[in-house]
Amino acid sequence: MRALPVLLVTVLTAALATPVSAAVGDDTRYVDPLIGSAGGGNTYPGAVRPFGMISWSPTSTRGDQTGTGAANEYAYDATRVRGFSLTHVNGAGCHPGAAGDVPIMPHVGEITSSPTADTRDQIFASDFSHADEKAEAGRYRVGLKSGATADLSVTTRAGIGEFTFPVSGSLLFRTSNSLNGSEDADITIDPATSSVSGSVLTGAFCGRRANGGANNQKTYYRLRPRHDVRLYVFAALGLYPRTPSSAELHLSSPMFPRARITKKNITVLATGTPGVHVRETRWNGREVERPWLPEAFVERGGVLVSRLEG
């Protein structure tokens, strides 16, 4: 079987101070992001850079959709994942810690039930072996027992994810239920551009959040495939595979937008940022490259990636 790679580009802009640049040299070969991911260290091994705006890392599970393997979603002894989320913090001394927004999961096989109803993470999660996992400075790779692989890398303000399937599959974008819970999430699907945009209210720290509580933040995002894909939405506990046709579709959470992958080299463009409306930040990202990326360039203010090769 020929592998079907899917490229996902994620760009985050900041409503914060401009990050300080940091020189990166050959010393990065000494970095082991897995250090601290066991024994209550509460670190995560995913792709992140110093002063970077994105921390793309796996969300582990011990069989409970409302919890994770550890405070920052990853524990070395929890070898099952249900997605790869875009935000994390290191070293939280409590469970749950924070972050874990908008996890993305490559799923192999047909979808015959709603992912929302998979409360024990039995169907829409996958085991993995540490022998198939590699973490290094700015990059994280893992092969799942489902046959799918995830290869994540980041620059200061952007992330690139390459998802490969043994056969055709689906990318599941969970837009609510962040690590500490979430509410007031919404999704808009535009069939004219096959784009998905929306927002989620999340935040809090060291405990499940409550509406109107302290330390809240609203994250806005936009996902846009470069090629034609079939988009579905699964709502609540039932199977609701609605395919938008001519009109724009707007729904409220909890939702799973799903991109049905039937082609090779599918590229999905995405923007996301806490606190700034998506209309203000659409395609603001201008930096997306990595040392082993042969081609990356900017088109009309947005990031366009042609092909990734190891």
TrEMBL record:
Q: Name one GO biological process term.
A: glycoprotein catabolic process
Transmembrane annotation, as ranges? none
Going by the UniProt record, its keywords in alphabetical order are: Hydrolase, Signal
User: Where's the Glycosyl hydrolase family 92 N-terminal domain?
Assistant: 30-225
Asked if the Swiss-Prot or TrEMBL record annotates the protein with the keyword Signal, the reply is: yes
What GO cellular component term, any one, is given?
A: cytosol
Q: Name one GO molecular function term.
A: peptide-N4-(N-acetyl-beta-glucosaminyl)asparagine amidase activity
Specify the signal sequence span.
Answer: 1-22
Top-level taxon in the UniProt lineage: Bacteria
Q: Which residues form the Glycosyl hydrolase family domain?
A: 232-308
Entries under InterPro entries matching the protein? GH-type_carb-bd, GH92_N, Glyco_hydro_92, PNGase
Name listed for the protein in its UniProt record? Glycosyl hydrolase family 92
